[in-house]
């Protein structure tokens, strides 16, 4: 667990330590609406390997989480088809915060307030390490993507769209 700069504990780091999952810490200067692009730029990371955590909901307003490449968007139509839902749409920011327990811009797939189904873009599982939010704005962690499958029961989907 590399530490260049000490970062205080988050529910995410506590969760990963409890489950004995190795991770690296990557703090950066948070910029509103900078997203994964800004984080990757500041940290010198491949944007395709930086994953954003998106809270969405189905037609019954049941929450679900999608983990997607930083340089891609989610095809909600393809996602709905692949998970046998009628419709999937992004949650409003305040609703996403209620479900996850995190501020938008700091949403991590780990240690969420509500347990919800997790879907991960299949190609992210091919990397030995991906970078996800560590539970606060301006803080990524590097983690083996297999931890998402084992700890969160994340299921692979192919729903990436090139940003246009």
Automatic annotation (TrEMBL):
Residues 36-149 form the YbaK/aminoacyl-tRNA synthetase-associated domain. GO terms for biological process: translation. It is an enzyme of class 4 (lyase). InterPro entries: Prolyl-tRNA_editing_YbaK/EbsC, YbaK/aa-tRNA-synt-asso_dom_sf, YbaK/aa-tRNA-synth-assoc-dom. Belongs to the prolyl-tRNA editing family. YbaK/EbsC subfamily. PANTHER family: CYS-TRNA(PRO)_CYS-TRNA(CYS) DEACYLASE YBAK (PTHR30411:SF0), CYTOPLASMIC PROTEIN (PTHR30411). This is Cys-tRNA(Pro)/Cys-tRNA(Cys) deacylase. It comes from Pollutimonas subterranea.
